[in-house]
């Protein structure tokens, strides 16, 4: 996507949200230090209701906005963290919102269990994708197995997918899709957090 004036990224929040899967994403989207966009990206939480939700780590989060009121044209991306709700009807509104976003050409990023929900809805049947394991998605009886990639994160036509074991790669794919950072900064961030190479820190300090 190209950078636009819309710099709001929406993070779906719900009970049992897997905290660790979006920590890198939220921290760096809200930190405008190295952003290349003319402005500053910000993250807003969105949920099916405005009551507090409790993450898998026991943190309580008060949603900023209602999922039903979210329009693709008002967002730069919808991010769906992993959770324990994905096989239930409680997760259906998030899947349908993801479908609405993709149909409108606005990116969606899903990790871990959220990829299972998208698979069950047929949203992975015609896009290259990944997840925590191929066997996980195969067990759901979806039709997209031929497009599964043994990679930590995959982007195809605005849909980013990743497994629970790849929060840093998930973040890198999101930053690349949003064009938040210039390539050298993105490389240095991954060198620091992905490769755990301290040289990445010194590179970032020199930007």
Brief descriptors of the model:
single chain, 207 residues, alpha/beta, Rossmann fold, 7-stranded mixed beta sheet, two-stranded antiparallel sheet, 16% strand, transferase activity
Task: Summarize the structure in words.
The chain is α/β, with parallel strands linked by helices and 207 residues long. The protein has a single domain (8-181), classed as Rossmann fold (3-Layer(aba) Sandwich), CATH 3.40.50.880. Helices cover 30% and strands 16% of the residues. The chain has 7 helices and 9 strands. It has helices spanning 23-30, 92-103, 113-120, 134-138, 167-178, 183-193, 199-205; strands at 8-12, 42-47, 53-54, 60-61, 65-66, 77-80, 108-111, 153-156, 159-162. Strands 5-2-1-6-7-9-8 form a 7-stranded mixed beta sheet, with helices on both faces. The model has no long low-confidence stretch (mean pLDDT 93).
């Amino acid at each position: 996507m190209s950078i636009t004036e819309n710099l709001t990224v929406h993070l779906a929040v719900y009970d049992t949200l897997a905290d660790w899967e979006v920590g890198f994403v939220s921290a760096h989207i809200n930190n405008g230090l190295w952003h290349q966009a003319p402005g500053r990206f910000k993250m807003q939480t969105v949920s099916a209701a405005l009551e507090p939700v409790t993450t898998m780590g026991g943190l309580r989060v008060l949603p900023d906005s209602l999922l039903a009121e979210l329009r693709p044209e008002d967002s730069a991306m919808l991010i769906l963290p992993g959770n324990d709700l994905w096989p239930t009807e409680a997760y259906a509104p998030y899947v349908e919102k993801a479908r609405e976003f993709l149909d409108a050409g606005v990116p969606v990023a899903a990790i871990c269990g959220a990829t299972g929900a998208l698979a069950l809805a047929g949203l992975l049947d015609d896009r290259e994708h990944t997840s925590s394991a191929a066997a996980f998605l195969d067990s759901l009886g979806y039709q997209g197995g031929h497009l599964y990639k043994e990679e930590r994160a995959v982007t195809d036509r605005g849909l980013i997918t990743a497994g629970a074991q790849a929060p840093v790669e998930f973040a890198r794919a999101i930053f690349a899709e949003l064009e938040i950072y210039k390539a050298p900064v993105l490389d240095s961030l991954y060198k620091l957090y992905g490769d755990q190479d301290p040289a990445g820190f010194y590179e970032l300090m020199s930007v």
